[in-house]
Amino acid sequence: MKLVGVSGALAGEKTSLTVNDVLVNAKLLDSTIQTELIDLRDYEIDFFDGAPLAVYNEDTWNVVKKILSADFLIFGTPIYQASISGALKNLLDHLPEYAFKNKVTGMVATGWSNKHFLVLEYHLRSILSYFKGLVPTGNVFVHNDSFNEDSDKIIDDRVSERLQKLAEEIIYLQRGITNR
Ligand SMILES: Cc1cc2nc3c(=O)[nH]c(=O)nc-3n(C[C@H](O)[C@H](O)[C@H](O)COP(=O)(O)O)c2cc1C
Fold it and tell me: In the prediction, which pLDDT does 52 show?
């Protein structure tokens, strides 16, 4: 099974580290799982303007292909203006309607206000469900205070534990779908 992580931040490190944490935990739980991190800082994704996919640049095409070929996925977003990042939404706008059929799609977010922990539930979950993704009951919001200021490493053990539990849940659910 291939697990692809998508980090929807173009600015800092925290979202990418959080998504990667889930990938690392998944690999520790099951070494046969292949993992890949798509960090949007590494790609130039064209702005979606209604044209078909073939018209966009190679990065856009490659990233969409990687996402569609994943067995299951974990999406990470920084909270921007009480919602998901525009970069992540733009990438999702490139996908076909049934992109996540029979795929588990987990969610993590980073932000500076705990008041926005429900953004994942109210903004990202509905989009992933629209694409027919199975969204786990667990998701993880990581407050900026949970990161070491210098290294951006996660220093809150409860957060690390929740990320591990999320990795467990997405593997469990995806196995259920794959072996049904
Ligand atoms: C333009 C902008 C808007 C933001 N809006 C919010 C917000 O509404 N709620 C929140 O909790 N954090 C907000 N943040 C904080 C970021 O979500 C937070 O710093 C996040 O950890 C950044 O992730 P990154 O290091 O992956 O870029 C905002 C940051 C920026 C730059």
Answer: 94
- For the domain spanning 2-178, the CATH number is 3.40.50.360
Q: Is the CB of 110 under 6 A from ligand 1?
A: yes
pLDDT grade for 151, boundaries at 50, 70 and 90: confident
CA distance 87 to 83: 12
Q: What are the residue ranges spanned by the domains of the chain?
A: 2-178
Ligand 1 pocket member 146 (CB < 6 A): no
- Assess whether the C-beta atom of 105 lies below 6 angstroms from ligand 1: no
Neighbours of 116 (CB within 10 A): 19
In this model, does residue 154 exceed pLDDT 90?
yes
Helix/strand/coil percentages in the chain, nearest 5: 45, 20, 35
Atom of ligand 1 nearest to the CA of 147: 21
Between the CA of 90 and the centroid of ligand 1 the distance, in Å, is: 17
